[in-house]
Amino acid sequence: MEYFSDQQRGKREAFREDISDQVWRGILSHINALIDNGAFGESFPEICIDGPVVFGSCKSAFSDACRAEIPRLPEDWDIDKPDTLDLLDLIQFCFKNISKPSRHDYHDYFKHYHLTFNRQEGQETFLGQINQIFERNGIVFRLQSDGSIIRTLPPEFNQLLDASKTGNERGFDDLLNDAKAKIIRPDPRVRKEGLERLWDAWECLKTLEEGNGKKEQITKLLDKAASSQEFRGLLEVEAKALTEIGNKYRIRHFEQGKIEISDPRQIDYLFFRMLSMINLLLKARSGTP
Predict the structure, then answer these.
(1) Which of 107, 108, 123, 129 has the maximum number of C-beta atoms within 10 A of its C-beta?
(2) pLDDT value of residue 242
C-alpha cells in the first residue's frame, strides 16, 4: 500500500543507517504478530496432539534457533534492542523461515485451525512490509528477494556504480566488481574491504595500456582522458593524490604507521572519489562519450 503522504510529498530520502527504538518496536511487533498467526509454523511447527498437523508457530523453537544462528542477539531481544547488524540478521532469519499460512479444517475440540503454507507468498509479503518500514523512516537498508540486505545509495552514486562498466580485463574486472558489490553491504567492515579492492583495481588499471612499465602506461591512459592541457594537468595531480592515499592510509598497505580509515562516511567519500576517476579512464579507453 502506498500512503497518501508519500503521494503528496514524495518518498523520504534514505540517509539513516541507525535503526531507532521506535522502528525496532514496530519491527518487533510485526514479528510477534507473525509468530502468533502461524507464519513460522512451516519451519517451527506447533503440532496438534490429535494428529501430525500444524496449527501454529512454536515460539520457543523459533527463539532458540534464532539465538543459535545470531549468537550476538540479546537473550531478551524482545526487550533489549539488538545492535543494527544483529537486527538485520534477525530480519534475514525471519525471511528465510516465513511462509504464508492458510487455515483449513477447524478443530472444534481445541478451538484452532490446521494450517497449510506457501513460502514464496509469505516471503514476498514480508519483504514488502519490512522495506516499507525502512523506506518510510529514511533508513538506507533494503531486503532483497534472495534474502540478502543491501544499502541503498544516493541516485548519483548508483549512476556511477552502473556507469563503471568493465572491459573484459579479467583481473581488473574481478577487483572492480568485487569492490562495487561490497560498498553496498550494510556492514562498514565489508565496505572497507570494498575500498581496498577498488584501490587494487586502480593499481591494476595503470597497467592495462601498452607501454614500457607502469609510468608509461598510466601516462598514455591519462592522455586519452584529457580534453585539454589544463585538464591533463588536473588528472595528473589527481592520479598522484589517489596513489598517495593508498600508500599513506591503511587501504592497500597494513603495516604499522599507516592511518586508519573506519568512519563509513570517509569510506564512501574515498570510494566514490576513486570510482569517478576509474570511470573516466574506462570511458577514455573504450571511446565511450
Answers:
(1) 123
(2) 95
